[in-house]
Amino acid sequence: MSTFGDEFQPIIEELIELGNSNHQIINHLKESYSIFISERTLSRRKAEWGLSHHAIQQTSQLEEDIRRYFHQGLTNAQIHHTLSSKHGYVHSQRTLERKIQHMELQRRKEDLEIDDDEGMDVVIECVKKIHETPEGHNVGYRRLKQLLQTRYGINIHLSTAAAINRALDPEGVDRRSKRVLKRRVFNVAGPNFIWSADGHDKLKKFGITLYGFIDAWSRKVLAIFVHTTNNNPRHIGYYYLQLVKREGGIPRLTTTDRGTETIEMAGHQINLMRQFGIDYDLDPDQSHRFTKSTHNQKIECLWSQLMKQYNGELISQLYEADEKGYYDPEDPVDHLLFIYLWVPLLQDSLNEWINNYNSYKRRRDRKSMLPSGCSANMCYENPEDHDSEQGLIPIDISVALELENEHYPDAKDLTSTCPEWFSEIVDLLKLEMELNCPETDTQNVWSVLSLLRSAIQLYDSAWLDDITNDPEETIAARAYLLYDIDSTT
Questions:
Q1: Half-sphere exposure of 338 toward its Cβ, with a 13 Å CA cutoff?
Q2: What span, in angstroms and rounded, lies between the C-alpha atoms of 308 and 8?
Q3: What CATH code is assigned to 194-415?
Q4: How far apart (Å, rounded) are the C-alpha atoms in residues 374 and 19?
Q5: Is the dihedral of CA 337, 343, 344, 345 positive or negative?
Q6: In this predicted structure, what is the pLDDT of residue 155?
Q7: Greater pLDDT, 175 or 386
């Protein structure tokens, strides 16, 4: 009879990575190698080989990665390619497919049964919830299918998604079907050759602005930053350095319109190109291009998509809230509460929109010179699959950190949107008054604002009841003072 020696360590490690239990491993050893051991012996050997904790940790991380890519809609082949190239996965695609099956991750091969009323009701309720969000209000059937998968893990046929969408939103379907698109030719060598950046002012009436970056080749949205201003050069320069640190390098070229807000960003790009672009035979002074807004094609296209899929409905909600008196934009306290609630809410919501946008598989377009038939994430990570090359110029991250510390020592104040004193008081009121504030979303934000407004009024009233307190120190008085200062600057 064979012995259970050290030569079985790699076999056990592989079985553990595949998610096998001790019982399954013992059966495998018995059937494949005619080795009969007890569970106690297996546990002892796993401990000796350092596989007990390692197995749990490694398996957990692998499953998390698989689950994330699966729910992004990647095929098994794409998941295997991504794990192999980005996460050091060494096993075959067939092994990965067994792992996916073991994790009970299934892509629905058959659509909902005709008589599956309960299943259909669940799907319809989920679609209604999606339609209530800014992102899902004007969604097409292909994107609806993706949102059902990423948000709820529900997989249905495109035909079913189209039928449900038409039943619940017939006017929206008719409106989208009349769309006519005229293309312009756009050619880039690969990801990170060009980053396009621009501001978006459609929410400026409400005191909120956006600034976005997009990779021109893959059309991957690199980031959208939410703030109360997007025309401060220091903000844009700081955003650019955050992307450089995250990506580990700089693009060959950045493009923006001619606004003064991009001066610092252009300076950082040229400065870093001078230091790290020597081997690329590129002119650092030409590494940033100022262009007309209408020529900054890809970022303008992004704003168009954002308006259709997200902002359009959001703007309607904000106008409706103003008309119905949910808040008074001219009242300084209401304005501060609006910014306090909406900026982080929008940032989180847009981050989710970006994730869905980047993982959405575009339909194949043989007329386009840019990649199609794949998601922006897959194109960005795997340019070689499209006969293209990676354009990122690696840099020493410590240099970007030095630039950040030199130019933005006040980064915390620079990126904050509410006065620190206001945020601290609101957080204190939540705690001391035991306010039952739910996690804020676009459906309950106005009730949360009303709750906080009432708490502030009670606080100010109690403050004024004490004649020794300075009336100028109420929250309302401080907000009015801040409002007057802002309106004169």
A1: 21
A2: 57
A3: 3.30.420
A4: 30
A5: positive
A6: 76
A7: 386
The mean of the pLDDT values for the chain is 85
Q: Do 145 and 156 meet the contact criterion of CB atoms below 8 Å apart?
A: yes
Nearest 5 degrees, angle CA 282-CA 284-CA 285? 125
Q: Are strands 253-256 and 288-290 parallel, antiparallel or unpaired?
A: parallel
Instruction: Look up the pTM and report it.
Output: 0.68
Give the residue among 349, 350, 326 at the shortest CA–CA distance from 337: 326
Which of 224, 227, 230, 225 is closest to 199 using CA atoms?
Answer: 230
DSSP string, 446-488: HHHHHHHHHHHHHHHHHHHHSTTS-GGGSHHHHHHHHHHHHHH
Between CA 374 and CA 390 the distance in angstroms is 17
Instruction: Taking residues 107-133, report their average pLDDT.
Output: 70
**Best CA proximity match to 422, nearest among 394, 399, 455:** 455
Mean pLDDT along residues 60-74: 80
Listed in sequence order, the DSSP H helices in 184-291 are: 233-247, 263-276
Bridge-based pairing of strands 194-200 and 209-215 is: antiparallel
Beta bridge partners, 356, equal none
Exposed, middle or buried: residue 468 (CB in 10 Å: 0-12, 13-18, 19+)?
exposed
Cα Rg of the chain (Å, integer): 27
pLDDT in the model for residue 328:
92
Phi and psi dihedrals of 440, rounded to 5?
-75, 135
- Residue identified by tokens 């596989």 is 51
pLDDT given for residue 209 in this prediction? 95
Measured CA to CA, the distance from residue 297 to residue 89 in angstroms comes to: 38
Q: Report d(CA 207, CA 213) in Å as an integer.
A: 21
Categorize the per-residue pLDDT at 489 as very low, low, confident or very high, splitting at 50, 70 and 90: very low
Q: Tell me: the pLDDT tens digits for 381-423?
A: 999 888 889 999 999 999 999 999 999 999 999 999 999 999 9
Residue type at 450?
S
pLDDT at 54: 52
pLDDT value of residue 293: 60
Taking only the tens place, the pLDDT of each residue in 321-359 is: 988 999 999 999 999 999 999 999 999 999 998 998 899
Residue 123, CB-side half-sphere exposure with 13 Å CA sphere: 25
Alpha helices (H) in 217-375, listed in sequence order? 233-247, 263-276, 297-306, 312-323, 332-359
234-270 burial by CB neighbour count: b if 16+ within 10 A, else e?
bbbbbbbbbbbeebebbbbbbbbbeeebbbbbbbbbb
